[in-house]
Protein backbone atom coordinates (compact mmCIF):
# COMPACT_ATOMS: atom_id res chain seq x y z
CA UNK A 1 0.00 0.00 0.00
CA UNK A 2 1.48 3.32 -1.05
CA UNK A 3 0.78 6.79 0.19
CA UNK A 4 -0.69 8.28 -2.96
CA UNK A 5 -2.73 5.25 -4.08
CA UNK A 6 -4.78 6.43 -7.01
CA UNK A 7 -3.70 9.95 -6.08
CA UNK A 8 -6.54 9.79 -3.61
CA UNK A 9 -7.05 12.73 -1.33
CA UNK A 10 -6.17 15.51 -3.76
CA UNK A 11 -9.76 16.67 -4.18
CA UNK A 12 -10.09 16.71 -0.42
CA UNK A 13 -6.97 18.85 -0.19
CA UNK A 14 -8.50 21.43 -2.49
CA UNK A 15 -11.64 21.59 -0.35
CA UNK A 16 -9.69 22.57 2.76
CA UNK A 17 -7.00 24.73 1.18
CA UNK A 18 -8.93 27.89 2.01
CA UNK A 19 -9.26 26.76 5.62
CA UNK A 20 -5.51 26.25 5.83
CA UNK A 21 -4.89 29.69 4.31
CA UNK A 22 -7.19 31.39 6.80
CA UNK A 23 -6.02 29.53 9.90
CA UNK A 24 -2.40 28.98 9.01
CA UNK A 25 -0.58 25.67 9.01
CA UNK A 26 0.19 24.06 12.35
CA UNK A 27 3.73 23.05 13.25
CA UNK A 28 4.52 19.79 15.01
CA UNK A 29 5.77 20.36 18.55
CA UNK A 30 9.03 18.67 19.58
CA UNK A 31 8.78 15.15 20.90
CA UNK A 32 9.49 14.60 24.61
CA UNK A 33 9.45 10.83 24.99
CA UNK A 34 11.27 9.26 27.93
CA UNK A 35 13.71 6.67 26.54
CA UNK A 36 12.70 3.05 27.04
CA UNK A 37 14.66 -0.10 26.20
CA UNK A 38 13.61 -3.56 25.09
CA UNK A 39 13.53 -6.26 27.73
CA UNK A 40 16.12 -8.99 27.15
CA UNK A 41 15.04 -12.58 26.84
CA UNK A 42 14.84 -14.69 29.99
CA UNK A 43 15.48 -18.45 29.83
CA UNK A 44 12.72 -18.97 32.37
CA UNK A 45 9.97 -17.56 30.14
CA UNK A 46 7.60 -19.91 28.34
CA UNK A 47 8.49 -18.54 24.90
CA UNK A 48 12.22 -18.96 25.56
CA UNK A 49 11.69 -22.61 26.41
CA UNK A 50 9.28 -23.16 23.53
CA UNK A 51 11.61 -21.49 21.02
CA UNK A 52 14.77 -23.28 22.15
CA UNK A 53 16.64 -24.93 19.29
CA UNK A 54 19.20 -27.48 20.55
CA UNK A 55 22.66 -26.85 19.14
CA UNK A 56 21.85 -23.42 17.68
CA UNK A 57 25.10 -21.44 17.54
CA UNK A 58 25.46 -17.98 19.13
CA UNK A 59 25.67 -16.30 15.71
CA UNK A 60 22.88 -18.35 14.16
CA UNK A 61 19.14 -17.81 13.92
CA UNK A 62 16.31 -20.26 13.44
CA UNK A 63 13.28 -19.34 11.35
CA UNK A 64 9.96 -20.66 10.17
CA UNK A 65 8.14 -19.42 7.04
CA UNK A 66 4.62 -18.05 7.50
CA UNK A 67 3.13 -18.46 4.04
CA UNK A 68 -0.51 -19.24 4.79
CA UNK A 69 -2.44 -16.16 5.90
CA UNK A 70 -4.38 -17.95 8.65
CA UNK A 71 -1.17 -19.39 10.08
CA UNK A 72 0.49 -15.96 9.92
CA UNK A 73 -2.30 -14.50 12.05
CA UNK A 74 -2.24 -17.53 14.36
CA UNK A 75 1.51 -17.00 14.91
CA UNK A 76 1.08 -13.38 15.98
CA UNK A 77 -1.81 -14.18 18.30
CA UNK A 78 0.05 -17.16 19.78
CA UNK A 79 3.09 -15.02 20.65
CA UNK A 80 0.84 -12.42 22.24
CA UNK A 81 -1.08 -15.06 24.21
CA UNK A 82 2.09 -16.69 25.56
CA UNK A 83 4.23 -13.61 26.24
CA UNK A 84 5.03 -13.04 29.91
CA UNK A 85 7.05 -9.81 30.06
CA UNK A 86 7.07 -7.69 26.89
CA UNK A 87 5.51 -7.28 23.45
CA UNK A 88 6.78 -4.69 20.97
CA UNK A 89 4.67 -4.02 17.87
CA UNK A 90 5.63 -1.82 14.89
CA UNK A 91 3.36 -1.48 11.84
CA UNK A 92 2.73 0.84 8.93
CA UNK A 93 -0.99 0.03 8.99
CA UNK A 94 -3.13 -1.16 11.89
CA UNK A 95 -6.75 -0.98 10.84
CA UNK A 96 -9.90 -0.70 12.94
CA UNK A 97 -11.42 -3.76 11.26
CA UNK A 98 -12.01 -7.32 12.41
CA UNK A 99 -8.35 -8.36 12.38
CA UNK A 100 -7.09 -5.07 13.81
CA UNK A 101 -9.60 -5.03 16.64
CA UNK A 102 -8.94 -8.63 17.60
CA UNK A 103 -5.19 -7.97 17.50
CA UNK A 104 -5.58 -5.01 19.87
CA UNK A 105 -7.90 -6.98 22.13
CA UNK A 106 -5.30 -9.76 22.38
CA UNK A 107 -2.64 -7.16 23.26
CA UNK A 108 -4.91 -5.69 25.94
CA UNK A 109 -5.41 -9.14 27.45
CA UNK A 110 -1.62 -9.52 27.63
CA UNK A 111 -1.25 -6.12 29.27
CA UNK A 112 -3.87 -6.98 31.89
CA UNK A 113 -1.80 -9.96 32.99
CA UNK A 114 1.23 -7.68 33.47
CA UNK A 115 2.98 -7.76 30.08
CA UNK A 116 4.48 -4.45 28.96
CA UNK A 117 2.99 -3.61 25.56
CA UNK A 118 4.50 -0.99 23.25
CA UNK A 119 2.65 -0.21 20.01
CA UNK A 120 4.26 1.98 17.34
CA UNK A 121 2.18 2.84 14.27
CA UNK A 122 2.83 5.13 11.33
CA UNK A 123 0.38 8.03 11.49
CA UNK A 124 -0.64 8.14 7.82
CA UNK A 125 -3.76 5.99 8.14
CA UNK A 126 -4.76 6.54 11.78
CA UNK A 127 -7.61 9.03 11.26
CA UNK A 128 -10.12 6.19 11.65
CA UNK A 129 -8.20 4.23 14.29
CA UNK A 130 -6.74 6.81 16.66
CA UNK A 131 -9.79 6.90 18.96
CA UNK A 132 -9.68 3.12 19.31
CA UNK A 133 -5.93 3.28 19.94
CA UNK A 134 -6.44 5.99 22.57
CA UNK A 135 -9.03 3.88 24.38
CA UNK A 136 -6.72 0.87 24.10
CA UNK A 137 -3.93 2.91 25.72
CA UNK A 138 -6.10 3.48 28.81
CA UNK A 139 -5.15 -0.09 29.78
CA UNK A 140 -2.32 -0.32 32.34
CA UNK A 141 1.05 -1.44 30.87
CA UNK A 142 0.15 -0.13 27.39
CA UNK A 143 1.75 2.77 25.52
CA UNK A 144 1.03 3.86 21.95
CA UNK A 145 3.29 6.13 19.92
CA UNK A 146 2.92 7.43 16.36
CA UNK A 147 5.62 7.92 13.76
CA UNK A 148 5.88 11.26 11.95
CA UNK A 149 2.40 12.44 12.99
CA UNK A 150 0.07 15.11 11.70
CA UNK A 151 -0.02 17.98 14.22
CA UNK A 152 -3.65 19.09 13.83
CA UNK A 153 -7.03 18.34 12.28
CA UNK A 154 -6.45 14.75 13.24
CA UNK A 155 -9.97 13.33 12.94
CA UNK A 156 -10.30 13.74 9.15
CA UNK A 157 -7.83 13.05 6.36
CA UNK A 158 -8.86 16.27 4.62
CA UNK A 159 -8.14 18.49 7.62
CA UNK A 160 -4.96 16.60 8.48
CA UNK A 161 -3.52 17.44 5.07
CA UNK A 162 -5.19 20.82 4.76
CA UNK A 163 -3.65 22.10 7.98
CA UNK A 164 -0.23 20.73 7.02
CA UNK A 165 0.20 22.17 3.52
CA UNK A 166 3.54 23.72 4.43
CA UNK A 167 4.77 20.41 5.83
CA UNK A 168 4.07 18.08 2.90
CA UNK A 169 7.72 17.14 2.43
CA UNK A 170 7.98 15.78 5.98
CA UNK A 171 4.64 14.01 5.82
CA UNK A 172 5.60 12.36 2.54
CA UNK A 173 8.11 10.19 4.47
CA UNK A 174 6.56 7.24 6.26
CA UNK A 175 7.50 4.29 8.49
CA UNK A 176 6.79 1.22 6.38
CA UNK A 177 8.28 -1.28 8.89
CA UNK A 178 6.38 -4.38 10.03
CA UNK A 179 7.64 -6.12 13.17
CA UNK A 180 6.47 -7.94 16.29
CA UNK A 181 8.85 -9.01 19.09
CA UNK A 182 7.64 -11.12 22.04
CA UNK A 183 9.64 -11.50 25.27
CA UNK A 184 12.82 -10.63 23.38
CA UNK A 185 13.05 -14.16 22.02
CA UNK A 186 10.65 -14.55 19.07
CA UNK A 187 9.93 -12.08 16.27
CA UNK A 188 7.77 -11.86 13.16
CA UNK A 189 9.10 -9.89 10.18
CA UNK A 190 7.62 -9.63 6.70
CA UNK A 191 5.17 -7.86 4.45
CA UNK A 192 1.86 -8.14 6.31
CA UNK A 193 0.16 -5.18 7.96
CA UNK A 194 -2.54 -5.71 10.58
CA UNK A 195 -5.71 -5.47 8.52
CA UNK A 196 -8.36 -7.79 7.10
CA UNK A 197 -6.96 -7.89 3.57
CA UNK A 198 -3.64 -9.38 4.74
CA UNK A 199 -5.41 -12.36 6.32
CA UNK A 200 -8.08 -13.21 3.71
CA UNK A 201 -10.86 -11.37 5.52
CA UNK A 202 -11.61 -8.52 3.11
CA UNK A 203 -14.79 -8.85 1.06
CA UNK A 204 -13.38 -7.55 -2.23
CA UNK A 205 -9.60 -7.83 -2.27
CA UNK A 206 -6.95 -9.81 -0.38
CA UNK A 207 -3.16 -10.10 -0.45
CA UNK A 208 -0.93 -13.14 -0.79
CA UNK A 209 2.02 -12.36 1.47
CA UNK A 210 4.95 -13.83 3.39
CA UNK A 211 6.53 -13.47 6.85
CA UNK A 212 9.22 -15.17 8.90
CA UNK A 213 8.96 -16.23 12.53
CA UNK A 214 12.46 -16.27 13.96
CA UNK A 215 14.52 -16.77 17.10
CA UNK A 216 18.21 -16.63 17.88
CA UNK A 217 20.86 -14.01 17.15
CA UNK A 218 18.67 -11.83 14.91
CA UNK A 219 16.01 -11.10 17.53
CA UNK A 220 18.06 -8.82 19.84
CA UNK A 221 19.08 -6.83 16.76
CA UNK A 222 15.45 -6.43 15.74
CA UNK A 223 14.57 -5.39 19.29
CA UNK A 224 17.34 -2.78 19.23
CA UNK A 225 15.99 -1.52 15.92
CA UNK A 226 12.55 -1.14 17.48
CA UNK A 227 14.07 0.86 20.34
CA UNK A 228 15.78 3.20 17.87
CA UNK A 229 12.35 4.08 16.49
CA UNK A 230 10.52 4.13 19.82
CA UNK A 231 13.00 6.64 21.24
CA UNK A 232 13.36 8.67 18.04
CA UNK A 233 12.42 12.37 17.91
CA UNK A 234 10.30 11.39 14.87
CA UNK A 235 7.98 9.49 17.21
CA UNK A 236 5.32 11.13 19.39
CA UNK A 237 3.15 9.79 22.18
CA UNK A 238 -0.48 9.39 21.15
CA UNK A 239 -1.54 10.73 24.55
CA UNK A 240 0.10 14.08 23.74
CA UNK A 241 -1.43 14.29 20.27
CA UNK A 242 -4.90 13.24 21.41
CA UNK A 243 -5.25 14.20 25.09
CA UNK A 244 -8.32 13.04 26.99
CA UNK A 245 -9.92 14.07 30.29
CA UNK A 246 -12.10 10.98 30.43
CA UNK A 247 -11.49 8.54 33.28
CA UNK A 248 -9.50 5.47 32.21
CA UNK A 249 -12.38 3.21 33.23
CA UNK A 250 -14.70 4.91 30.73
CA UNK A 251 -12.19 4.52 27.90
CA UNK A 252 -11.47 0.92 28.82
CA UNK A 253 -15.18 0.10 28.77
CA UNK A 254 -15.57 1.75 25.37
CA UNK A 255 -12.63 -0.26 24.00
CA UNK A 256 -14.11 -3.45 25.39
CA UNK A 257 -17.45 -2.75 23.71
CA UNK A 258 -15.81 -1.87 20.38
CA UNK A 259 -13.77 -5.08 20.25
CA UNK A 260 -16.08 -7.55 22.01
CA UNK A 261 -17.22 -9.31 18.82
CA UNK A 262 -13.91 -9.16 16.95
CA UNK A 263 -13.23 -12.86 17.46
CA UNK A 264 -16.40 -13.74 15.55
CA UNK A 265 -14.90 -12.41 12.30
CA UNK A 266 -11.61 -14.29 12.48
CA UNK A 267 -10.90 -17.07 10.00
CA UNK A 268 -10.80 -20.62 11.38
CA UNK A 269 -7.57 -22.52 11.07
CA UNK A 270 -7.64 -24.69 7.93
CA UNK A 271 -8.66 -28.31 8.24
CA UNK A 272 -5.29 -29.44 6.88
CA UNK A 273 -2.56 -29.96 9.47
CA UNK A 274 0.12 -28.26 7.38
CA UNK A 275 0.54 -25.48 4.86
CA UNK A 276 2.04 -26.04 1.41
CA UNK A 277 5.56 -25.77 2.87
CA UNK A 278 4.88 -28.42 5.51
CA UNK A 279 4.41 -26.20 8.58
CA UNK A 280 1.49 -26.34 11.01
CA UNK A 281 0.04 -23.62 13.25
CA UNK A 282 2.55 -21.93 15.56
CA UNK A 283 0.04 -22.04 18.42
CA UNK A 284 0.29 -25.83 18.37
CA UNK A 285 4.04 -25.93 17.73
CA UNK A 286 4.74 -23.82 20.83
CA UNK A 287 3.18 -26.53 22.96
CA UNK A 288 5.45 -29.27 21.62
CA UNK A 289 9.05 -28.00 21.51
CA UNK A 290 11.39 -27.98 19.79
CA UNK A 291 9.54 -26.22 17.01
CA UNK A 292 10.23 -27.22 13.43
CA UNK A 293 12.50 -24.43 12.16
CA UNK A 294 15.22 -23.88 9.59
CA UNK A 295 18.65 -22.56 10.53
CA UNK A 296 21.15 -20.13 9.08
CA UNK A 297 22.82 -16.77 9.49
CA UNK A 298 20.67 -13.65 9.29
CA UNK A 299 21.77 -10.11 8.53
CA UNK A 300 19.27 -7.68 10.05
CA UNK A 301 18.67 -4.55 7.96
CA UNK A 302 16.88 -1.61 9.59
CA UNK A 303 16.66 1.90 8.20
CA UNK A 304 17.66 4.65 10.59
CA UNK A 305 14.49 6.54 11.62
CA UNK A 306 16.29 9.71 10.57
CA UNK A 307 15.74 8.59 7.00
CA UNK A 308 12.40 10.33 7.55
CA UNK A 309 14.34 13.59 7.87
CA UNK A 310 15.32 13.34 4.21
CA UNK A 311 18.85 11.97 4.58
CA UNK A 312 18.33 9.30 1.88
CA UNK A 313 16.56 11.39 -0.75
CA UNK A 314 19.68 11.65 -2.92
CA UNK A 315 19.79 7.86 -3.11
CA UNK A 316 23.46 7.62 -2.09
CA UNK A 317 23.16 6.58 1.58
CA UNK A 318 24.93 3.17 1.72
CA UNK A 319 23.27 2.27 5.02
CA UNK A 320 19.66 2.12 3.81
CA UNK A 321 17.92 -1.22 3.47
CA UNK A 322 17.59 -0.64 -0.27
CA UNK A 323 21.27 0.09 -0.84
CA UNK A 324 22.38 -2.89 1.26
CA UNK A 325 20.08 -5.21 -0.64
CA UNK A 326 21.28 -3.76 -3.95
CA UNK A 327 24.84 -4.57 -2.90
CA UNK A 328 23.78 -8.16 -2.21
CA UNK A 329 22.00 -8.41 -5.57
CA UNK A 330 25.13 -7.24 -7.40
CA UNK A 331 26.95 -10.27 -5.95
CA UNK A 332 24.60 -12.70 -7.73
CA UNK A 333 26.50 -15.25 -9.79
CA UNK A 334 23.92 -17.46 -11.49
CA UNK A 335 20.24 -16.90 -10.69
CA UNK A 336 18.12 -14.07 -9.28
CA UNK A 337 14.42 -14.17 -8.40
CA UNK A 338 12.89 -10.72 -7.73
CA UNK A 339 9.45 -10.52 -6.13
CA UNK A 340 7.74 -7.19 -5.51
CA UNK A 341 4.11 -6.04 -5.66
CA UNK A 342 5.30 -2.60 -6.79
CA UNK A 343 8.34 -2.58 -9.08
CA UNK A 344 9.76 0.73 -10.28
CA UNK A 345 13.53 0.10 -10.47
CA UNK A 346 14.73 3.52 -11.58
CA UNK A 347 18.14 4.05 -13.15
CA UNK A 348 20.10 2.31 -10.39
CA UNK A 349 17.87 -0.73 -10.36
CA UNK A 350 18.07 -1.07 -14.12
CA UNK A 351 21.84 -0.69 -13.95
CA UNK A 352 22.01 -3.59 -11.48
CA UNK A 353 19.82 -5.71 -13.76
CA UNK A 354 21.98 -4.92 -16.79
CA UNK A 355 25.09 -5.83 -14.81
CA UNK A 356 23.52 -9.14 -13.84
CA UNK A 357 22.60 -9.93 -17.42
CA UNK A 358 26.12 -8.96 -18.52
CA UNK A 359 27.33 -11.76 -16.21
CA UNK A 360 24.70 -14.12 -17.72
CA UNK A 361 22.65 -14.18 -14.51
CA UNK A 362 19.20 -15.67 -15.12
CA UNK A 363 16.76 -13.06 -13.76
CA UNK A 364 13.06 -13.60 -13.10
CA UNK A 365 10.78 -10.79 -11.95
CA UNK A 366 7.38 -11.55 -10.40
CA UNK A 367 5.02 -8.62 -9.80
CA UNK A 368 1.32 -7.76 -9.96
CA UNK A 369 -0.60 -7.29 -13.18
CA UNK A 370 -2.57 -4.07 -13.60
CA UNK A 371 -5.78 -6.02 -12.95
CA UNK A 372 -4.37 -7.38 -9.68
CA UNK A 373 -2.64 -4.33 -8.24
CA UNK A 374 -4.09 -1.96 -5.66
CA UNK A 375 -1.73 0.75 -6.96
CA UNK A 376 -2.65 1.29 -10.60
CA UNK A 377 -0.42 4.34 -11.03
CA UNK A 378 2.59 2.38 -9.79
CA UNK A 379 1.70 -0.26 -12.36
CA UNK A 380 1.65 2.47 -14.99
CA UNK A 381 5.14 3.53 -13.95
CA UNK A 382 6.30 -0.09 -14.16
CA UNK A 383 4.91 -0.28 -17.71
CA UNK A 384 7.67 2.10 -18.82
CA UNK A 385 10.27 -0.50 -17.80
CA UNK A 386 8.66 -3.65 -19.21
CA UNK A 387 10.11 -3.39 -22.74
CA UNK A 388 13.57 -2.62 -21.34
CA UNK A 389 13.44 -5.61 -19.00
CA UNK A 390 12.30 -7.97 -21.75
CA UNK A 391 14.98 -6.74 -24.14
CA UNK A 392 17.58 -7.40 -21.43
CA UNK A 393 16.40 -11.00 -21.29
CA UNK A 394 14.61 -10.76 -17.94
CA UNK A 395 11.75 -13.22 -17.51
CA UNK A 396 8.79 -11.06 -16.43
CA UNK A 397 5.76 -12.65 -14.77
CA UNK A 398 2.64 -10.76 -13.68
CA UNK A 399 0.28 -12.25 -11.12
CA UNK A 400 -3.40 -12.32 -12.05
CA UNK A 401 -6.31 -11.53 -9.67
CA UNK A 402 -7.18 -15.24 -9.72
CA UNK A 403 -4.21 -16.03 -7.49
CA UNK A 404 -6.14 -16.17 -4.21
CA UNK A 405 -9.37 -17.73 -5.44
CA UNK A 406 -8.65 -21.19 -4.04
CA UNK A 407 -7.30 -20.09 -0.68
CA UNK A 408 -10.00 -17.46 -0.21
CA UNK A 409 -12.75 -19.92 -1.07
CA UNK A 410 -11.35 -22.34 1.48
CA UNK A 411 -11.03 -19.87 4.33
CA UNK A 412 -13.69 -17.22 3.75
CA UNK A 413 -17.30 -18.39 3.99
CA UNK A 414 -19.12 -17.30 0.87
CA UNK A 415 -16.35 -17.77 -1.66
CA UNK A 416 -13.47 -15.83 -3.10
CA UNK A 417 -12.29 -12.32 -3.83
CA UNK A 418 -9.77 -10.59 -6.05
CA UNK A 419 -6.21 -11.64 -5.25
CA UNK A 420 -3.12 -9.47 -5.10
CA UNK A 421 0.46 -10.37 -4.39
CA UNK A 422 2.12 -8.47 -1.55
CA UNK A 423 5.25 -10.61 -1.13
CA UNK A 424 8.42 -8.51 -0.96
CA UNK A 425 11.75 -10.22 -1.42
CA UNK A 426 14.33 -11.85 -3.60
CA UNK A 427 16.37 -15.04 -3.79
CA UNK A 428 20.03 -15.01 -4.86
CA UNK A 429 21.61 -18.17 -6.29
CA UNK A 430 19.05 -20.34 -4.46
CA UNK A 431 20.81 -19.51 -1.18
CA UNK A 432 20.36 -15.91 0.03
CA UNK A 433 16.78 -14.74 0.66
CA UNK A 434 15.53 -11.27 1.50
CA UNK A 435 12.34 -11.05 3.56
CA UNK A 436 10.95 -7.75 4.78
CA UNK A 437 8.83 -4.66 4.20
CA UNK A 438 10.80 -3.11 1.31
CA UNK A 439 9.23 -2.62 -2.09
CA UNK A 440 11.45 -2.18 -5.12
CA UNK A 441 10.52 1.41 -5.86
CA UNK A 442 11.54 5.02 -5.26
CA UNK A 443 9.45 5.38 -2.11
CA UNK A 444 11.07 2.47 -0.28
CA UNK A 445 14.50 3.50 -1.51
CA UNK A 446 14.49 7.16 -0.53
CA UNK A 447 11.41 8.16 1.46
CA UNK A 448 9.99 5.39 3.63
CA UNK A 449 11.82 3.54 6.38
CA UNK A 450 12.00 -0.25 6.05
CA UNK A 451 13.11 -3.38 7.87
CA UNK A 452 14.32 -6.65 6.37
CA UNK A 453 16.43 -9.76 6.71
CA UNK A 454 19.11 -11.25 4.46
CA UNK A 455 18.98 -14.94 5.28
CA UNK A 456 21.71 -17.39 4.26
CA UNK A 457 19.80 -20.66 4.01
CA UNK A 458 19.38 -22.82 0.89
CA UNK A 459 16.39 -24.50 2.56
CA UNK A 460 14.55 -21.19 3.04
CA UNK A 461 15.43 -20.16 -0.51
CA UNK A 462 13.82 -23.33 -1.85
CA UNK A 463 10.71 -22.71 0.28
CA UNK A 464 10.31 -19.20 -1.13
CA UNK A 465 10.85 -20.39 -4.69
CA UNK A 466 8.24 -23.10 -4.13
CA UNK A 467 5.77 -20.52 -2.78
CA UNK A 468 6.26 -18.19 -5.76
CA UNK A 469 5.95 -21.10 -8.19
CA UNK A 470 2.61 -21.93 -6.53
CA UNK A 471 1.37 -18.36 -6.95
CA UNK A 472 2.39 -18.49 -10.61
CA UNK A 473 0.44 -21.70 -11.16
CA UNK A 474 -2.66 -20.29 -9.46
CA UNK A 475 -2.81 -17.44 -11.95
CA UNK A 476 -0.18 -15.48 -13.86
CA UNK A 477 0.87 -14.08 -17.22
CA UNK A 478 4.23 -14.63 -18.88
CA UNK A 479 5.28 -11.45 -20.71
CA UNK A 480 7.05 -11.33 -24.05
CA UNK A 481 7.74 -8.90 -26.85
CA UNK A 482 5.71 -9.17 -30.04
CA UNK A 483 7.37 -10.60 -33.14
CA UNK A 484 8.04 -7.09 -34.43
CA UNK A 485 9.64 -6.19 -31.07
CA UNK A 486 7.36 -3.16 -30.75
CA UNK A 487 4.95 -3.98 -27.94
CA UNK A 488 4.41 -6.25 -24.94
CA UNK A 489 2.20 -9.33 -25.00
CA UNK A 490 0.76 -11.30 -22.08
CA UNK A 491 0.60 -15.10 -22.34
CA UNK A 492 -1.74 -17.05 -20.07
CA UNK A 493 -1.51 -20.85 -20.12
CA UNK A 494 -4.29 -23.26 -19.08
CA UNK A 495 -4.01 -27.03 -19.50
CA UNK A 496 -1.23 -26.57 -22.01
CA UNK A 497 -3.20 -24.06 -24.09
CA UNK A 498 -1.78 -20.55 -24.43
CA UNK A 499 -3.92 -17.43 -24.76
CA UNK A 500 -2.14 -14.29 -25.93
CA UNK A 501 -3.27 -10.75 -25.01
CA UNK A 502 -2.05 -7.65 -26.79
CA UNK A 503 -3.42 -5.33 -24.09
CA UNK A 504 -3.39 -5.43 -20.28
CA UNK A 505 -5.58 -8.46 -19.48
CA UNK A 506 -8.58 -8.07 -17.21
CA UNK A 507 -8.66 -4.27 -17.57
CA UNK A 508 -11.25 -2.29 -19.53
CA UNK A 509 -10.44 0.41 -22.08
CA UNK A 510 -11.50 3.26 -19.79
CA UNK A 511 -9.06 2.14 -17.10
CA UNK A 512 -6.24 1.79 -19.61
CA UNK A 513 -6.87 5.30 -20.93
CA UNK A 514 -6.99 6.75 -17.42
CA UNK A 515 -3.70 5.11 -16.51
CA UNK A 516 -2.12 6.22 -19.79
CA UNK A 517 -3.13 9.84 -19.15
CA UNK A 518 -2.21 10.13 -15.47
CA UNK A 519 1.03 8.17 -15.78
CA UNK A 520 2.39 11.03 -17.84
CA UNK A 521 1.49 13.59 -15.19
CA UNK A 522 2.66 11.86 -12.01
CA UNK A 523 6.33 11.61 -11.11
CA UNK A 524 7.73 8.24 -9.99
CA UNK A 525 8.85 10.06 -6.85
CA UNK A 526 5.22 10.38 -5.71
CA UNK A 527 4.30 6.73 -6.19
TrEMBL record:
GO molecular function annotation: phosphatidyltransferase activity
InterPro entries: PLD-like_dom (IPR025202), PLipase_D/transphosphatidylase (IPR001736)
Domain (PLD phosphodiesterase) ranges: 171-198, 417-444
Highest taxon, organism lineage: Bacteria
Pfam families according to UniProt: PLDc_2
One BP annotation, GO: cardiolipin biosynthetic process
Signal peptide: 1-29
UniProtKB keywords: Signal
Xref: SMART domains: PLDc (SM00155)
UniProt-listed PROSITE patterns: PLD
Protein name (Swiss-Prot/TrEMBL): Putative cardiolipin synthase
Organism: Pseudacidovorax intermedius
